[in-house]
Backbone:
């Protein structure tokens, strides 16, 4: 059964982004997401100490864009770096990692950080990432200018990954998706929703969705870019993992979540919308990984620029339209 899709699906409360990087879908393609012809948009070594730059987050900032980038260095330490771009394509990434200001020394020194997401919320930019505190958990920090970063309490106990803040309060509270994990290459994982009155204390945890047996998302799932609010629900791009005889394969799927109770899944597509195929997605430090972690959206047109890590080595860019992605979720749902 397919749900009846409405004739128009609009972005709610988004802004116009006249400088959004964009290419039209190539002639003859029927893909819901199509790749930038200049990929990878950020190479593995944009500065000499970088081993790889991937799974990173960008947002509109000033007249252009800013971002927080996962850069693994040549000791293979996982660091977070700031970067700026006028056009979303040509990025200047600071070779020095971000040094977070931490008010409470009990939070400990920065050990590692990876897979950041960035959201504009209440007039500030908030970064969430996988932060070491006796194992991986969700770090949160805010910045006004992408120069000074102020770290808050970790959101959850270890072990947790893929913390994704919603871009507004929901039901009067801040809202975050996360994926409880173990301290290794977790062979399980469902997406959960949590609320907070103050971005410090998190509770009212709700299950959102889990892995799907015998599919591209059979092993685990985790939130991707910050969700986009549409007239049909929150548009969520997420990653799903299959365990092949040669290791994990990371692909991307799409779902629509209820606007006021986002732990309720309105629609979820059965097929993936992006899977490793290009050489830079299949060959790298970890082969066969696409890991979407940011989306720029031009609200009036619904055009999307999707940034994703490829093979844990480079950052790639792809394009889609909000209404078409939402329709994939509505019109190609899994049998229930
Ligand atoms: C996950 C995270 C991601 C990475 C993926 C594939 O556990 O570490 O950063 O892209 O594995 O290696």
Residues:
């Amino acid at each position: 059964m397919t749900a009846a899709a409405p004739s128009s699906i609009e972005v709610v409360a988004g802004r116009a982004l006249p400088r959004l990087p964009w290419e039209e879908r190539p002639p003859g393609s029927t893909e819901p997401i199509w790749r930038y012809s200049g990929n990878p948009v950020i190479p593995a070594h944009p500065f000499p100490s970088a081993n790889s730059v991937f799974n990173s987050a960008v947002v509109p900032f000033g007249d252009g864009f800013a971002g927080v980038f996962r850069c693994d260095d040549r000791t293979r330490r996982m660091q977070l770096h700031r970067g700026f771009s006028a056009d979303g394509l040509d990025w200047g990434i600071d070779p020095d990692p971000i040094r977070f200001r931490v008010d409470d020394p009990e939070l400990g020194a920065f050990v590692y950080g990876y897979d950041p997401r960035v959201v504009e919320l209440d007039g500030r930019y908030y970064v969430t990432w996988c932060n070491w505190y006796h194992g991986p958990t969700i770090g949160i920090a805010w910045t006004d200018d992408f120069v000074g970063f102020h770290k808050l309490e970790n959101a959850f106990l270890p072990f947790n990954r893929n913390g994704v803040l919603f871009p507004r309060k929901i039901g009067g509270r801040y809202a975050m998706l996360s994926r409880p994990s173990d301290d290794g290459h977790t062979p399980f994982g469902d997406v959960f929703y949590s609320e907070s009155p103050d971005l410090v204390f998190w509770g009212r945890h709700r299950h959102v969705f889990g892995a799907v047996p015998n599919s591209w998302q059979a092993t685990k799932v985790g939130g991707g870019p910050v969700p986009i609010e549409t007239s049909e629900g929150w548009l969520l791009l997420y990653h799903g993992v299959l365990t092949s005889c040669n290791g994990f394969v990371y692909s991307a799927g799409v779902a629509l979540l209820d606007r006021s109770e986002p732990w309720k899944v309105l629609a979820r597509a059965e097929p993936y919308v992006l899977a490793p195929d290009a050489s830079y997605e299949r060959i790298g430090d970890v082969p066969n990984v696409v890991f979407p972690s940011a989306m720029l959206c031009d609200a009036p047109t619904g055009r999307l620029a999707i940034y994703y890590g490829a093979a844990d080595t480079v950052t790639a860019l792809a394009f889609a339209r909000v209404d078409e992605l939402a329709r994939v979720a509505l019109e190609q749902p899994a049998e229930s």
